[in-house]
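Hi R.,

Here's the input for the threonylcarbamoyladenylate complex you asked about:
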Amino acid sequence: MQNIYLNIYKPNSFNLKKAKKYIENCNIIGLPTETVYGLAGNAYSDKSVKKIYSLKKRPRVNPLIIHFKNLKDLKSDVILNSTFVKLYKAFCPGPITFILKKNPKSKISQIACGGKKTIAIRIPKHKIARKLLKILKVPLAAPSANISSKISPTSAMDVCDEFGKKIKFVLDGGRCKIGLESTIVDLTSRPTILRHGVITPKKIYKVLKKKILVNQKPKSITAPGQLNLHYSPGIPVYINKLEPRKGGAFITFGKKFKNDKNYFNLSKTGNLNEAASNLYKTMRYIKKLKFKSISVCKIPNVEFGRAINDRLKKASYS
Ligand code: TXA
Ligand code: MG
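And here is the predicted structure with threonylcarbamoyladenylate in place:
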């Protein structure tokens, strides 16, 4: 049996050219970004985009994020506005996704947009993602590289664990630094955060000088990250707990927790960035160790902690 990890490739110039060929031939690859790994394909090709939906088992109504190299490249696909330009200057390239109105001339696959008149765009910062975008002539549709409703992968091996041999080519960019998905900001009307991330409302406020709305529970579902069960490790998750359940693991945060064989500390120093970067990795590890459940201690709901709590809350939905 072929080892699935043989599908992982070092990001040297030879393999980047190989990745380019894959994309040009409407194939799908695993791509590192600074947040999580993406499942990337040619955003202009219906064929590529259909493959992404099918691999992820993702409902077609849920649109994909389109990744661009820079502002110049996205002008033909979306309609820019002044709020976007301010946020772009402050945070791009980086872990933030913008929802903008679609340019009627856009060549982005309508399937990737889930039939909407808006497009989610992101300019990733990861060196390897940027190198690939630089040699490509098309933007990349790239949702997180996990089966729909599961947790995102933060290493090339996680991508292979999710898809096995169905993904023939994963570029190895090491462990993702941030470890949680990008902040999503809807800029089609009053600026609104649809998904929390490392770019917090406070950081956005500093740039826009006005309070940004937060709407993670709209009347109609516009993003799967807004569905109830999401970010699931595949075993029950219980939040705001003081101890683990019988046969279960306990995810902790801060120095007051002892070390034990079923205790897993996200950050002994109580650092929320470190905790976020360890969250999915730790959940995957616990599942592999065959624990029956995951209990999680209370995690401060401030700064990046809001994104952590958002993911945990959805993971604990039953
Ligand atoms: O960090 C990230 O954003 C990663 C990396 C790979 O870039 N990508 C990611 O993609 O998390 P995905 O597909 O797992 O999550 C994208 C979210 C989904 O909840 C989707 O519904 C939402 O963005 N989205 C995409 N297009 C949208 C649109 N036009 N309006 C509202 N939400 C949209
Ligand atoms: Mg996702």
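One thing worth noting: The chain has two domains: 8-214, 237-315.

Cheers,
M.
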